[in-house]
TrEMBL record:
The lineage of its organism: Eukaryota, Metazoa, Spiralia, Lophotrochozoa, Mollusca. This is LRAT domain-containing protein. Residues 1-38 are annotated as: Disordered. GO terms for molecular function: N-acyltransferase activity; phospholipase A1 activity; phospholipase A2 activity. It comes from the Eukaryota.
Amino acid sequence: MVMRSISRNNNERISFEESDNDDAERDYRELPSIQNPENSEEIVVEDFIQNLEALNDGSDRSCADCSKARRVEDMRSLQKGQHIAMPGEHSSHYFKFLRKRISAYRHHGIVERIVQASRQTAEVTLIHFYKEDNVIKVRKQTKTYNLTYDELYIIEYQYPRYNPDTIIQRAESVLEQSENGDLFESYNLLTQNCEHFATWCVLGKKVSLQVHTRFNNIMQMLRNSFAGAQLFLKKLVHFFRKIPSVLTKVAAPPVLLGLSSVAYIIYCIFKTVYLIKQYRNDKTICWHCLKEKILDLWLQCGAFAVTSVISYVIITFALPLIGLIVTGIGIEIGLLLIFLASIAGQSITLPLQIPLTIGVVLGGALLNWVVPRIRKALWSPVQHSEKTITSLSALNVGDVVSLTYYGLTHLVVVSEVTWNNNTEQGTVRGIHYSLHGLLDTIEIAEEDFPVDLGSSKLNLVEFNTLFTYSPEEVVNRARKRIGERKWKMSSNRSEHLCRWAKVRLDHNSEDIGQLDDEDTGNIHSTNLSSLMVGKSDVHLMNEIQLGDVVEYGSYKGIVIQLEDVTDGRVFFMHTVIRKSCFQYYGEKVKLRIDLNKDYLNVHRYHPVHCVSRSERVRKAIGMIGEKIQRWTQTGFVEDIILKQR
């Protein structure tokens, strides 16, 4: 028998154990097989996704849709060849009561050179669309940026096509207009804007996620307005009832319903074909994003069909009937009047019809808004590629695998692999959110999964383009969460556990201290940048630092002391909070945190606006027992963490 595992001794130290086949290489099939459709437990959406698997060719490609915008917290993280973004110069405004800068759009460019940089300021040469002498064209411009005023984002691509040097060469080639002719000779908001230019340099394809988002918003507005359009059309038909009957029938709401549904289905078909072309021929979208977009498209189509039919029935029959019943007419007589009115080409209008119609429109809009968000919550947070395993010798401890669990796709952290002479049969031991019965508590456990690759499918989840922990660290991190009972469909299931254990996420957790005001040139911005960077869930005590702002239940305050009890999962946290008792004052509370069942968040603020964490601790301790003028917890926290300006 061959076994690969990571075991822990009494001192909780991790060691490797492996026998035979040390040099076994990963063995994959080029094309993953389609899951057996005879499984009666498969749901419709899962079948739809599995049928798309035939398109997955596993080849390298670029993708803009899975790119992420990371806020710059230290100017020294800027590098040449990066795609950066910032709030639009003519559309942004800083709202003091929110301490947030809001803009209608973001401006994009390519970093050609870093002239000089410190933690807070940098002189950067950008290649981007820039307006000069009332002409917008691609130019090279050197500017000084200060994080106090400039809110910069690095666009991080999971699948870039070109390296930084090639990206700069492509950007400069547009300036020289040598090999690309007039590719970006003129600016066009919809087809050739600053984001199109930046993505073309990185991916080789012009893409603007901002334009796509605006277009999708318009499509959603059109879908949501269908119920109101039916009522308007009924009025219009009634007003022009003397028009020949053929035109009246064409304009009737049932025909409108049919035509709009057919038009939307045709749009979905063309959009699906376009996305598949992007994937197969242009190679400008990854497999994960292709599935996500197609699924979203057809879920919204289904939601539109359902809401359209319901709104038609309600507006044409239910609302007039309700109105007649309210006025004292019985159900039978009401139905007869509605039937006779429809035969005569008339409509029954009552005072209640307008507000109830507005309710139908808002209800349909809510459903169309909720459906894609539910899909996104249920979708795997791990944007990854998968390879089908044909031999258990291809698996190593610390890998993440995808298997079928209760009829659904499920991710597991591999902690041990065993097999006999036949490498297609054996056991995979994994750490995951486990459910033993419908009435049992869902909790993280380490369990054995019998595997027969001849009759079931096992996929290796690849994280090639991400920074990952070593295999020992992956298993150790996952094992520390064994016993956790905080399963949430939308934010904390097995997929989230695997990503947290495997991928190094940039939380900028080091105490970089207070960023002093600096100046390396002329500052072009006048608005302040946003204070808040984000917040993250805490899974281990070492993810918290003294001086952090934490939120635990109704408590929100500054951490001044930590006492570990059980391996970083159970600990005492001393926090200074705002207390109300006839008047507001600072109070120190000692909280016992059990991360197996308690939810704890750390709020992250931009260091350019804040004092150092050690200074926060000093100021928080000084507030204990002192009167506080602030009425809110947020105001109390800001008084401690913000620099005086």
